[in-house]
Design a protein that fits this description.
This protein is an all-alpha fold and 128 residues long. The chain has one domain (2-123). Helices cover 76% and strands 0% of the residues. The chain has helices at 2-26, 37-47, 51-67, 72-92, 102-124. α1 (2-26) packs across α5, α3 (51-67) packs across α4 and α4 runs antiparallel to α5. It is elongated, with a radius of gyration of 16 Å.
């Protein structure tokens, strides 16, 4: 049961990250600007600098690495700062805005909990 939940969470998060990463390049999902003036300034600075492309590449790369079982931990590490920054931005500046940021955050927490339980169990039995 845990493996099924973990696989579903991994696939959903990977697909979300790949789609939202590609959206930064192609713009097929319209995104409303945040209501807060500080958040608008941050987003404006991000759009006009290299940071937007770096985040898009990290989302796509992390999503692809998450899908491959041997590189799942590296994908998790790549997505860790991305998810943290998404969560921190929305909590600080755009909490009332669209709630789509909650889905990747919840999926990431589920994956983290289940994945580290598996690692701890493997270390107990001497597999790692």
């Amino acid at each position: 049961m845990k493996n099924t939940i973990q696989n579903i969470a991994i696939w959903l998060l990977a697909i979300l990250m790949i789609i939202f990463g590609l959206n930064k390049f192609f713009g097929f999902i319209p995104v409303e600007p945040p209501a807060d003036a500080t958040a608008q300034g941050f987003m404006g600075a991000m759009f006009t600098s290299y940071l937007y492309i770096i985040v898009a590449i990290a989302e796509i790369t992390g999503g692809i690495l998450l899908l491959i079982p041997k590189t799942r931990f590296i994908g998790w590490l790549v997505l860790l700062p991305v998810i943290f920054n998404i969560m921190a931005f929305h909590i600080a500046h755009d909490f009332i805005g669209n709630g789509i940021w909650l889905l990747p955050t919840i999926l990431f927490v589920i994956i983290s909990y289940l994945q580290f339980n598996n690692i701890k169990k493997a270390m107990t039995y001497g597999f790692i």
